[in-house]
Automatic annotation (TrEMBL):
Species this protein is from: Crenobacter luteus
Gene3D superfamilies assigned: Vaccinia Virus protein VP39 (3.40.50.150)
Protein name: Ribosomal protein L11 methyltransferase
Entry binding sites for S-adenosyl-L-methionine: T150, G171, D193, N232
GO biological process terms held by the UniProt record: methylation
Length: 298
C-alpha cells in the first residue's frame, strides 16, 4: 500500500487554518514544519517544556498525507476555500508502506548521561550492561532524558546520590528522576504530578525498572520531608512554589530545580535564597539547573 504526500509552502498567517482544513477535507495527517529547515535561513522556535509554542515559522511547510486514490488537487482547493486562503501550489510524492513501528524506534537510541548512567529504550541492548541502565520508552509523559532540563537533573543525581537518601520529585512526568535516584542507591522516592497520565506512566516505568517508588496526584501525596527535592517543571510555577518545596526539604537537605531558561536563573535563585544557600547555576543549551542547601529553621 502507498500514500500520496503533498508538500505545501505557505506562511504562518494561514498555515494552521489550512492544515486543519486539510484534515477536514480528508487528509490522513497534516503536519507543519519550517520550510527553511536545514538551511542558513532556518528559524528556531523555542518554548519551555510542556508549554505550547505561540507562533509558527514565518515560512511554513505543510506535509499532508492522502490515500493513494484521493484527488489531492481538488481536496487542497476545497481546504483552501474553507480556510479563506488562495489555492496554494503544491508538490506531490508517493510514500511507500513502511514498518512504522521499527522506523520510529530507530530514531530513539540509548542516551548516555555519564559512564555509569544510561537511558535505554526497551527495544535496545544496553551499551554498557555494567552501568546503571534506566529502561524508558518515549511516551505521553514528559521526560525521557533527551531534553537538557532532564539531563541536568540526572547528572546531578549521578554525582550526588551516595546511598540511603530519601527523594521527593515534584512534577515527576515519566518518573525518570525518582527511578534514577533509586537505581543509584536512594532508599526511597516519592513523586507527584498534576497529570493522572504522568502518575500512571511513572508507576508503569518504576515497575519496568524493578524499583519500588510511590507516585501521587497532589491531593493524595503524603506530607514528607526528604533529603533531596527535585522540581523539573517550569519557571512560572517555580516562582510560586518556593515555600511549598522548601517545606519538603529537611534542614541540610538539597533542592534541585530545572525547567528554567538561562535568563531566568538569577531571578529564581534570588527567590529560593529565602530558604536555601544557593549554588552557582549550571547551564546546558540555554537551560539552567539551580541547586541549594536548606538552611535550618529558626
Amino acid at each position: 500500500m502507498a500514500w500520496q504526500q503533498a508538500s505545501i509552502d505557505t506562511d504562518s498567517r494561514v498555515a494552521e487554518a489550512l492544515a486543519d482544513a486539510l484534515m477536514e477535507a480528508g487528509a490522513l495527517s497534516a503536519a507543519i514544519e519550517d520550510a527553511w529547515a536545514g538551511t542558513e535561513q532556518e528559524e528556531p522556535i523555542f518554548g519551555e517544556p510542556g508549554e505550547p509554542v505561540d507562533k509558527l515559522w514565518q515560512k511554513s511547510r505543510i506535509l499532508a498525507l492522502f490515500a493513494d486514490d484521493a484527488d489531492v488537487g481538488a481536496l487542497i482547493a476545497l481546504a483552501a476555500l474553507a480556510a479563506g486562503a488562495p489555492t496554494p501550489a503544491f508538490t506531490l510524492e508517493t510514500v511507500e508502506e513502511q514498518d512504522w513501528v521499527r522506523l520510529t524506534q530507530s530514531q530513539f537510541d540509548p542516551i548516555r548521561i555519564s559512564d555509569r548512567l544510561w537511558i535505554t529504550p526497551t527495544w535496545h541492548e544496553a551499551p554498557n550492561p555494567q552501568a546503571v541502565n534506566l529502561q524508558l520508552d518515549p511516551g505521553l509523559a514528559f521526560g525521557t532524558g533527551s531534553h537538557p532540563t532532564t539531563r541536568l537533573c540526572l547528572q546531578w543525581l549521578d554525582a550526588h546520590i551516595q546511598g540511603g537518601e530519601t527523594v521527593f520529585d515534584y512534577g515527576c512526568g515519566s518518573g525518570i528522576l525518582a527511578i534514577a535516584a533509586l537505581k543509584l542507591g536512594a532508599a526511597s522516592a516519592v513523586g507527584v504530578d498534576i497529570d493522572p497520565q504522568a502518575v500512571k506512566s511513572s508507576r508503569d516505568n518504576a515497575a519496568q525498572n524493578g524499583v519500588v517508588a510511590e507516585f501521587f496526584l497532589p491531593d493524595d501525596a503524603p506530607a514528607i520531608q526528604a533529603d533531596v527535592v527535585l522540581a523539573n517543571i517550569l519557571a512560572n510555577p517555580l516562582r510560586l512554589l518556593g515555600e511549598l518545596l522548601a517545606g519538603h526539604v529537611k534542614p541540610g537537605g538539597k533542592i534541585v530545580l530545572s525547567g528554567i531558561l538561562a535568563d531566568q536563573a538569577a531571578e529564581l535563585s534570588g527567590i529560593y535564597s529565602a530558604w536555601f544557600d544557593m549554588d552557582p547555576p549550571v547551564f546546558d543549551e540555554g537551560w539552567t539547573r539551580l541547586t541549594g542547601t536548606r538552611r535550618a529553621t529558626v
